[in-house]
Design a protein that fits this description.
Layout lengths: L2 H25 L5 H8 L3 H25 L5 H20 L4 H28 L6 H30 L1 H22 L11 H6 L4 H21 L2 H7 L8 H25 L1 H22 L3 H16 L1 H12 L4 H28 L6 H34 L9
Helix pairs in contact: 1-5, 1-6, 1-7, 2-3, 3-5, 3-15, 4-5, 4-7, 5-6, 5-15, 6-7, 6-11, 6-14, 9-12, 9-13, 9-14, 9-15, 9-16, 11-12, 11-13, 11-14, 12-13, 12-14, 12-16, 14-15, 15-16
Main location: membrane
GO molecular function: transmembrane transporter activity
InterPro entries: MFS, MFS_dom, MFS_Efflux_Transporters, MFS_trans_sf
């Protein structure tokens, strides 16, 4: 391996490590809803608001934090964001009650959207244009590994030593991530997001808003089942709580494979991959709704949900960078926020459905509806792009025919 390639891989690894820490703090609560609810004397639906609150804070914080750091080098912004992330997790670990815990979640969430927006832009800049989606997928592998290794470990740690131990562990991982970013991510004086006016200008394009809507709906569909995975598996499928970490490992393996496959396919044909991954995720939700009462089929679908859901991630991220290519940082960060708006909406609607007496499977059907809506918007977006391209070809000056 050449020195330049080794440096690129180390830089991508550092970005992936940061994504690992961020993914861990977002997803670990999914496996701790029961213990958190019991310890803090709140219901499952109220504990689920720790997911909703985090996601909503990402949605609000992503554009604000990115816009505030537009003039700073991207590496400097990543360092600042990771420091904020560590502080939020320390506060969560020391929280005496539900309100302070939610505050810690909000603080750590402020860095999430901006980090996951700026990071993919930097990852894509490290490789050739025809390998951008794969580079983004490699960075996002940090998120998937946080499920394969981190969430089951955090769940087991929380069950054995209390949920606070999980947040202390995340804070330590955040410190290691910060050191890796400082050591390996290249510093470039001109590596900034440009002027705020330039970054904002891309939001005049309808295609940017269409991608944001697709991201919100598509990821909201996937997370409708993910948010309530632990109670579904224990109360509907009949698994013991001790089996949940192992099932989450299976889920995480699906995430990793789906993420890498989605990145590879997106580099070959972006729009067809978008249609295909949304369709696959929606179909997986339908099957899971019927399979959930049966242990073995439910376990199989845990894997399938992870694979189909995370195959969408590098696709959506590449797409928004394409339609905002002149100034991608803010658009990419807002897209990260759109992921979390989808999470917040699906978790909220899912909680309302459960509290309304519709059962733990009701959020899965909400996810199916969101997935169908995402597919409809994606189809409309693709059709509009084809019409615009056809119009541009008609308007292009005709080349004179050569005389024979």
């Amino acid at each position: 391996m050449s020195t330049s390639k080794r440096r690129r891989m180390l830089a991508l690894g550092a970005l992936a490590l940061g994504a690992f820490g961020i993914g861990l703090t977002e997803f670990v609560v999914v496996g701790l809803l029961g213990p958190l609810g019991d310890d803090l004397d709140v219901s499952i639906s109220t504990a689920g608001l720790l997911v909703t609150g985090y996601a909503a804070s990402v949605a609000v914080g992503a554009p604000i934090m990115t816009a505030a750091g537009t003039r700073l080098p991207r590496k400097t912004m990543l360092v600042i964001l990771m420091g904020l992330f560590i502080a939020g997790n320390v506060l969560a670990a020391k929280a005496p009650d539900y309100g302070v815990l939610m505050t810690g979640r909000v603080v750590s969430a402020l860095c999430h959207g901006a980090f996951m927006g700026i990071g993919p832009v930097m990852a894509a800049s490290l490789v050739a244009p025809d390998r951008r989606s794969r580079a983004i997928a490699l960075m996002m592998t940090g998120l998937t590994l946080s499920n394969v290794v981190g969430v089951p470990f955090g769940t087991a740690l929380g069950q054995q030593l209390g949920w606070r131990a999980a947040f202390w562990g995340i804070a330590v991982i955040g410190a290691v991530s910060l050191a890796a970013i400082i050591a390996f991510v290249p510093s470039r004086a001109n590596d900034t997001g440009g002027s705020l006016r330039t970054e904002l200008a891309v939001f005049r394009r309808p295609q940017v808003w269409q991608v944001l809507t697709i991201t919100m709906l598509g990821w909201g569909a996937a997370y409708a089942a993910i948010t309530f995975m632990e109670p579904i598996l224990t109360r509907v499928s009949g698994f013991d709580t001790g089996a949940v970490p192992w099932l989450l490992i299976l889920f995480g393996i699906g995430l990793t494979g789906g993420n890498l496959l989605g990145g590879r396919l997106a580099d070959r044909a972006l729009m067809p991959t978008m249609y295909g991954t949304i369709t696959a995720a929606t179909a997986a939700l339908v099957v899971f709704a019927f399979a959930a009462p049966y242990a073995v089929p439910a376990a199989v679908m845990v894997f399938a949900l992870g694979a189909a859901g995370f195959a969408m991630v590098p696709v959506f991220q590449t797409r928004v960078m394409d339609v905002a290519k002149e100034a991608p940082s803010l658009a990419s960060s807002v897209n990260a926020a759109a992921f979390n708006v989808g999470i917040a909406l699906s978790a909220w609607f899912g909680g309302l459905a459960i509290d309304g007496g519709h059962g733990l499977i009701a959020p899965v059907w909400i996810g199916v509806a969101l997935g169908l809506a995402a597919l409809a918007v994606a189809a409309a977006s693709g059709a509009a792009e084809r019409r615009a391209k056809a119009a541009a070809d008609l308007d292009a000056p005709k080349q004179p025919l050569e005389k024979v």
